Give the backbone structure.
Amino acid sequence: MKMKEGLKLFIRVFVVLFLICMGTAWAEDKPDAKDFEVYTLGEIVVRGEMQGVKDIGISTEVSAEDIKATNSHTVPEALAHVSGIQVTYGRKNESEVAIHGFEQSQTLILIDGVPYYETANGKLDLSQFATDSIAKIEVIKGAPSVLYGPNAEAGVINIITKKPSDRPAISASYEIGELDADKFSFSHGMKVGMLNYWLGYTHKESDAWKLSDDFKRRIGLIGYRTGGPPAT
């Protein structure tokens, strides 16, 4: 019995030492190899079909030709010609774009497909975007919020800019209006190697607003009261 137990113990020790020697030799041959592998379920591919945005909503595209035909200088001016959109201006001449009566805060604004949020005032003034560098404007109305996420209850406005090519693009315009109103715009774009750039400048100035023909000017006085508001 003792001889059998001793033989079994010898065999076990021999097997352990043999495995250790083999593992050491294999590790010396492949020093960078790891002694374990990460378990994985393998690659999972999910395929399906989703109904397009244009199929569930009302889609309108304002092309560069449409912008030029309507002589629109800013994005709100171009959107004012789209059905279902109302454009108004506030006291500081900031624009408000409403789709089907919904406020602009309920409209998702995209620039080249990227959501744009104005964190200071909570509403983006689209008048700051000149149309010289815009290729087209996509307007999606209806129920696209399922695909675009939040802030798209009214619809989506996607402003797509121009992508310059190897051929330089230059455009300039100057307009003169009544009451010393003038507008000057200049844009230039080009592709240089891996660099794409598009520069634009717009200046609009007006000295006054046209009043009624029967308006009579009168010189007024402003008086200040101590501890109270000014009396005019």
